[in-house]
Sequence to fold (1001 residues):
Amino acid sequence: MMAPGRRSSTFTRLLRHGFTDPSAAERLLDSVELAPLRDDPVLLDALGATADPDLALLGLVRLVEAQDGRTARHELLDTVIAAKPLRDRLLGVLGASAALGDHLIRHPRDWHAFVMYEPRDLHPGVEEFERGLAEATDTVSLRVAYRRCLLSIAARDVCGTTDVAETAAELADLATATLRAALAIARAAAPGDAAQCRLAVIAMGKCGGHELNYVSDVDVIFVGEAADGADEGKALQAATRLASHLMRICSETTVEGSIWPVDANLRPEGRNGPLVRTLSSHLAYYQRWAKTWEFQALLKARPVAGDVELGEAYVAALAPLVWHAAERDNFVVDVQKMRRRVVENIPLAEVERELKLGPGGLRDVEFAVQLLQLVHGRADTSLRSGTTLDALGALAAGGYVGRADAVQLDDAYRFLRSMEHRIQLFRLRRTHLVPEDQADLRRIGRSLGLRTDPVAELNREWKRHASVVRRLHEKLFYRPLLDAVAQLAPGESRLSTVAARERLVALGYADPAAALRHLEALASGVSRKAAIQRTLLPVLLGWFADSADPDAGLLNFRKVSDALGRTPWYLRLLRDEGAAAENLARVLSAGRLAPDLLMRAPEAVALLGDGDGGGLAPRERAHLEQEILAAVGRADTGEQGVYAARGVRRRELFRTAAADIVHSYGTEQSPAEPDQGALVDRVGAAISDLTAATLAGTLRAVVRDGWGDTLPTRFTVIGMGRFGGHELGYGSDADVLFVHEPREGVDEHEATKAANAVVSEMRRLLQAPSADPPLLIDADLRPEGKSGPMVRTLTSYEAYYRRWSLGWESQALLRAEVVAGDEELGSRFIELIDPLRYPEQGLGDEAAREIRRLKARMESERMPRGADPTLHTKLGRGGLSDVEWTVQLLQLRHGWAQPGLRTTRTREALAAACAAELISAEDAAILDEAWVLATRVRNAVMLVRGRAGDTFPSDGRELGAVGRYLGYGPGHVGDMIDAYRRTTRRARGVVETLFYGATSV
Fold:
């Protein structure tokens, strides 16, 4: 008797052989059914070699129980004991697939499918599978025969007789035989239809590519023609009935389940198009209407059933179109966009477990290979394979992909496909999600030979291969360009210059010859610098190609690299800091302004990194002013001090522009900022604070240079317009008023002369030619406009506003805010103008009417000749002027009673008006959206063109770059224009009601 607490030796052996429930396994081994096997010394070894020994043992017991009579049971058990190959195949399948185990229970004699082991059984093809399905005459018998054939494929797979590529090919051959059998059943059921037409079945997708999964939709396209003497219309109807019946035979669920869905949605017009077309109709569609992805799908087209001659004619007719698809406009962009769309459509909770569609998944390999095939297969027929691994091998052999990369990608693809096969094989269900259950993961890991710690090893190998795929997916399309121009190791395959030029054209480079010269300059040689560039450039080229002007991105990158190439931190920053390289690529290819700012001081690249360079976060005004005043204090002259201030301004403008571009485009780690208003506010605040700090520093420099520590008059600068409203854009002038007050004992004439000298010198130094962008000061909003004195005393302002102030001046003063100089004097100026801009009891009706008349006159007189009023961001319909004047009228009329309206900022005032119920939430949202959009367009134009503009560019590339900044992908500039017109049209409707339509506003 066994001592209490001690386990039997069998229990221990079962644990050692991989059983997770040894107690249950002991009971099964002691069952009557397995009595003949009880003393078989190799049974446990055979069970332990399976993916799931518990499942395999239970399946074996169930199978023995299901045998019809003692003779049948003994036959099975004797064969299991005597025939090791059969034992391994049977137990291997039972341990890997509960679904096929269930099939064997329903059809207990089908275990004989494992017995035959002749040479032809090692790698059967379509002919062998057709023999296996030959006796099927209806849907049920076809399913039984299909599963019987599937048993033999699974047995070879789990026992390692075939590798994953051979298994996928066998599954495709079995699908071909099944489609033929289904078509034969359909024809037999409708001989009249069969006589009227010729019908060809074209396999697409993985079936067409000879790389099918265990459970997958079988994609097909049907081609029909009239039989001799038959009416074409009636023949197509007959062919459609046959095709529909074929699909039902394979797809419908019966007592034996279904086989797989037959999917014909890849046909012209998809679900909306006819199921069957003639060859000429197919050809006409692809010549005129087909999208890029449809040609990509045709890479795998293969005739598999029905009229062989017609099927071959179909493939021959369409092949020339497929291999010239890369010449289509936006070809690569379309393919890349489709790949991104696939990833975006994956539910967030499933992305990390998505084996096929997720980042680093099977689809990344397939898309990259297909893209290269379509680009280079025009001239190189060796690349025209529908099978992914065969095509990858051909790409490597032709030098289009590095040999080491091809080996890594081949290994990763095989591993991921093996995982996919094992996941699907268990339940014979269509899924590409890696399970979360530990038992499932353990079974999959063991089935792949990972026996020490199956779950941990599986996860580790999966992540490793997915990482390889993701990296090479990014690299694959771009790296061979470098191989064409760089000095490579002897014997390494190189992409020809002609092929590289073709690929650059396909990527969207307008001047491939220049692009190749840049690549040669950057990546040639054996230096460490060139080696790092060869590592960086593949990914950078992809990011440049994702912009509207990849040529400019590459050229700018070469300029920056030439300037900083000898600086040790530059390439190290791009290589080692995750965000820096992508941020730089986005900035360099988004337009002219940011690269121009960077070229004047390339060391600002450091701002793009993750480290201590300050990053892209905007700096507070106090910190900016402190830095600028310190630089001015260190300068020997006022002129040098202002140049130092302008240098800080240039760097901070670059920081602001770079952050705006990165947040608008988004990166792999951080998606684009969804709140457009936040982007506008961030830019407006950053540039306004920077301008104020620059003026403060310039004022200090000029005063110190001319008067020492103390100016004869107190002096302050009042920001107006967008400057006062913290809404400056990249191309905005600084609207200001200058106010002074003579110090005690100083003659007013002398004080005014000094104040005018300060203003004149500030304007001169801020606009003087230099490497830094000028800061234009505009004082035209002063009393009497250009005819009035540039500087006034506070007393003079008071006298003017008391006697002569006009309505528009009160409106302009709504944006007034102290920005530099004497704060106490500035505060008294604000106290002076508050009664003007927030008049007690509000603006009168007559004054309101005058503002409306002035606005109407401005709309008719100031619109540039030839400008489209629906697209002019400042003066056009529903643009900035419309929104701002509407908000300002509300402020003038209600600011005296509503403290929230007493702000210089448009969006804040609009929100306050909504909170005070002076405007509905819906109308406020419409005006806010239009104002934000118009501001974004103005910023985009300046970023893209390098000069200010109030309307969309006419140049196609510039317009595309504006679209990318606003979140519109390639080919969607029309959508952008439509959206702008739609948004501003709605805003104009609100303006008509609130500004023009009601005196009570």
